[in-house]
Amino acid sequence: MTSIEVLKKYFGYDNFRAGQAEIISHILEKEDCLGIMPTGAGKSICYQIPAMIFDGVTVVISPLISLMKDQVDSLIQVGIPATYINSSLTEVDYSQTIQNIYHGMYKIIYVAPERFFSDTFINMLNFLDISMIAIDEAHCVSQWGHDFRPSYCEISKVISSLNKRPVIVSFTATATQVVKDDIIKLLDLHNPFVLTTGFDRENLYFSVQTPESKKEFLLKFLEDHKNMSGIIYCSTRKTVDEVYERLYNYGYKVSKYHAGMGEKNRTTSQNDFVYDRTEIMIATNAFGMGIDKSNVRYVIHYNMPSDLESYYQEAGRAGRDGDKAECVLLFSRADVVTSKFLIEHSFEGNHTNEYQKLNDIVDYCNTSKCLRSYILEYFGEKPKFDNCKFCSNCNSEIEITDITIDSKKILSCIKRMHERFGAGLVADVLKGSKSAKVKSLGFDSLSTYGIMSEYTRDTIRDLISFLVAEGYIKSIGNKYPILTLDSKANDILFSDTQVVIKKKIERILRPERNSKDDFESLPFDNKLFDILRELRMEVAKQNNVPPFIIFADVSLKQMSTYYPTDVDSMLKISGVGTFKLEKYGDIFIDVIRNYTQEHDIKRLDTLENSKSKSIATPKVDTKQVSYELYTKDGKTIKEITKIRGLTERTIEQHLLDCYENGMDINLENEINTQFENDIYDAIRKCSSGKLREIKDLLIDDVSYFDIKYYLIKMKLTLSL
Ligand SMILES: [Zn+2]
């Protein structure tokens, strides 16, 4: 089989993602490889596919125990025989697994690095035909990596002691040049093919918000993101508890996770979230390592994280299935204070590095540049765009305010204070504070004293932060930084450079991003999607795996768009391979078939065509759906409103249209029939025939629905 055939057969995809095909072709040539790919780019496919093509067994070394189980579960679900060996196995399970391995029952074996060095394991490796060893999280080998594991350093020794050297491939999400060199040297990769796919996660919408009330922002956000999985990161345990409590009281299905909870509670909580029993995980940064939940639709940082590395890693837990997801950072000045406090109290020593990283993330929060390009540049990449059109900065209307004069005031004040004080005191002087400190230093006699008294102290500080971010002011020092003029300051002070603040007003409607083939935003049938989600939940429970392992959200959305009712059309759905089709195809096809029959939906049979660019809207006769719910199922308008998630007015209009078109429907149960004669009178009296005017002639209890109904009834009677 070719790699693309394996991809389709087992994983159900038609195309590789960026970089996958290239690295796989090198692995198949038996070259050592180093893949640097961001989380969510699909690196496991890169070794899983060659593993199925090679004759022997592939060993995968991974440091994350919880991830191993998920990976193995996923492989088994697609029909690839796999297992894992780590400390979570009981004595009995362990010896059973070893026995199975000797009997050649697996193609892929995951193993924790500590287990890799045992004599039994090495003997076994020599007994088996090992075609490839894949090392995941390869940065763990380097002292410079953020997750150094001494046991990783022994890997190359074990490999060199094997009778036959297999292909060695390694993967990592983050790698600076030093770490990259370390990986190649310490793992003893032979002239490896190195591939960097880039850090961009195109399906993630990045956004920075500075709401007046984070609480309200969050409630509003969640209201707009109902029935979706999401993570809310908070900087402290206390905030986790508070947010958890509040959302719980609002009736959300929430879990929480922090180091103060005890291992058992943490595990329960994590499983509830992974298995979709709860929808929202509220957690400190202790949560997430080794979680491979693919259908996380948003990650909110309730507080600013300590640096961009952790931010990108945590935010990156959204949208691993490739479907659109949002990453929102809620920024406030108080977070900067908390972060500084945490740095000061973290450990002894010089904190220059931490402060630098803090400044970088504060800049990220303040920048008016494209957020995506900011992140990519931070990680040393040159973005191919200035404007990604898919972040809150690119998606904002810009309101421009000229602050040249204010900037001059601030800069000259700093100068007059001899560039020896911090933002707080500079703001005090500009504001005209009567504080003892200002007086004792004699700053109340400066010409700049009180020249910005019309602003609040916070606004002045915001302006200062802006001038720092734009390179007019330098902030020097860590704990108590002082402000000095930067080289660009003279442009404002002595030439006519105009300074403007661009205030972002984010457009409410986020643009769809479907330029890429592998990322589609589908106009799917919500009702069917909900039904399929429930079905998936049941199937997942029976199989004791998380729902996303059965089918990803994207697959369900495609099913809810194309209504596959036979094996062939089901195979065209992304994420449905032959094995999953055999296992679950019938159950899902049955439900979809029933649904389409019930709602008289014609299936879209041009999946290939519609998949490309213009996705045809599913031909659901929406009025017909309402009609049947009303006439056949005997639902009231209110009930239909709930079932379909549409407004009452829409449903009323559906039914009125059916009535007007002569369909068999009796609406009198829903009508205030006692006003029939009054309404007819009003219609006759009103010469314009306008609804509004008719209504004004009647008492308030008469609704527009009543009037419209009798207008139609009159018309129908007259035309008879
Ligand atoms: Zn952007």
What's a quick, concise take on this entry?
The protein has 720 residues and is an alpha/beta fold. It has 5 domains: 3-196, P-loop containing nucleotide triphosphate hydrolases (Rossmann fold, 3-Layer(aba) Sandwich); 204-378, Rossmann fold (3-Layer(aba) Sandwich), CATH 3.40.50.300; 401-501, Arc Repressor Mutant, subunit A, CATH 1.10.10; 522-615, Orthogonal Bundle (DNA polymerase, domain 1); 622-718, Arc Repressor Mutant, subunit A (Orthogonal Bundle).
Describe the structure.
Helices cover 47% and strands 12% of the residues. It is built from 33 helices and 17 strands. The strands form 4 sheets. The protein has a 7-stranded parallel beta sheet with strand order 3-4-2-5-6-1-7, sandwiched between helices. It has a 6-stranded parallel beta sheet with strand order 8-13-12-9-11-10, with helices on both faces. A two-stranded antiparallel sheet has the order 14-17. It is flat and about 95 Å long. The termini are far apart. Residues 509-520 and 605-620 have low confidence and may be disordered. Zinc ion binds at residues 370-372, 387-388, 391, 393-394.
